[in-house]
């Protein structure tokens, strides 16, 4: 770390149980705002290094409650931390398990897939039936002899073949449901 401490010597504390629950979970469980911040914090301090401290024992709390600098200079909690944590880590009191908080942010993921026939997709993609017929006829011509679209006008026969093909496809799609 930047302080020259080994990671095994580093502990971080919070008096917010919901924050502790966030930090001890994978960021993907939370909505993006929380997930991004949890991921950033977890890069600095591993989840198993976060501990809970009651608000009344939180050394940072007095500074947020309007304590004057003169009072802080005399406040033991500010300078030394909670007395119960002065010994080695294995002598610290056991924490109560962090339970899931009501109102915690959860990311809800839903995936909907629909299998759609390629023919059905083409039927709804084009703005008109005549446009669908023309595009299909050019594609059929290209597949048949490799000529580029627009090189020659489509014949009535080419258009009619494609029109009949699409009518059959539409009937198969529609009557297959019956």
Automatic annotation (TrEMBL):
List the top taxonomic levels of the source. Eukaryota, Metazoa, Ecdysozoa, Arthropoda, Hexapoda
Task: Indicate what this protein is called per its UniProt record.
Answer: Zinc knuckle protein
Which species is listed as the source? Lasius niger
């Amino acid at each position: 770390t930047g302080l020259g401490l080994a990671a095994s010597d580093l502990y971080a504390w919070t008096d917010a149980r919901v924050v502790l629950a966030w930090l001890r979970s994978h960021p993907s469980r939370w909505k993006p705002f929380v997930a991004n911040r949890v991921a950033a914090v977890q890069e600095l301090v591993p989840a198993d290094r976060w501990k809970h401290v009651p608000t009344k024992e939180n050394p940072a709390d007095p500074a947020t409650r309007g304590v004057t600098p003169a009072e802080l200079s005399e406040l033991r909690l500010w300078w030394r931390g909670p007395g119960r944590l002065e010994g080695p880590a294995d002598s610290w009191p056991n924490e109560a398990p962090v339970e899931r908080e009501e109102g915690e942010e959860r990311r809800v993921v839903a995936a909907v897939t629909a299998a759609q026939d390629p023919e059905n997709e083409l039927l709804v993609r084009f703005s008109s039936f005549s446009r669908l017929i023309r595009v299909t006829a050019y594609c059929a011509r290209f597949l048949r002899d490799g000529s580029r679209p627009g090189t020659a006008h489509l014949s009535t026969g080419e258009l009619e073949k494609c029109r009949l093909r699409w009518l059959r496809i539409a009937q198969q799609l529609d009557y297959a449901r019956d």
